[in-house]
Specification:
Nucleotidyltransferase, domain 5; 4 strands; alpha/beta
Length: 132
């Protein structure tokens, strides 16, 4: 009688399990930002993902585009990268995601840098308020 040998299938399953266990934590990389809460309307669905400039509590800038998105950028690098993205993807929405503990001056500096990079419209990201 012919029997199915399941040992190769178990080997493949274990290899896939190991791959998923290794890659799953890598998918959740990012900068810890505690957004302020405000009753704002969500943006309309867009054809392309927005360009997001993040500002952490220490005033460091991050960009959600390119390699090393979790590494802070200096002002000149931020301007150059945003400018390059705008040339590559004209009309992309640009959002600022500032931590609630970030200084107001850091958010203003980020917006001035975005203006220098050629951004016309900037949106500010918030979390919806918690209902009591």
């Amino acid at each position: 009688m012919a029997e199915i040998n399941v040992v190769p299938y178990i080997d493949v399953m274990l290899v896939l399990l190991v791959i998923f266990m290794i890659t799953a934590p890598l998918l959740n990389q990012g900068v810890k930002i505690d957004l302020p809460q405000a009753p704002a309307q969500p943006l309309d669905n867009q054809n392309q993902d927005p360009l997001i400039v993040e500002i952490d509590a220490q005033g460091r800038f991050y960009l959600n585009y390119g390699d090393n998105q979790h590494k802070p950028l200096d002002s000149a690098t931020l301007v150059n990268r945003v400018n390059a993205v705008l040339r590559y993807r004209p009309g992309v929405a640009v959002l600022v995601r500032g931590d609630r503990a970030a200084a107001y001056g850091d958010v203003v500096i980020a917006m001035a840098l975005l203006q220098k990079a050629g951004v016309d419209n900037v949106g500010l990201m918030t979390d919806p308020p918690e209902t009591l």
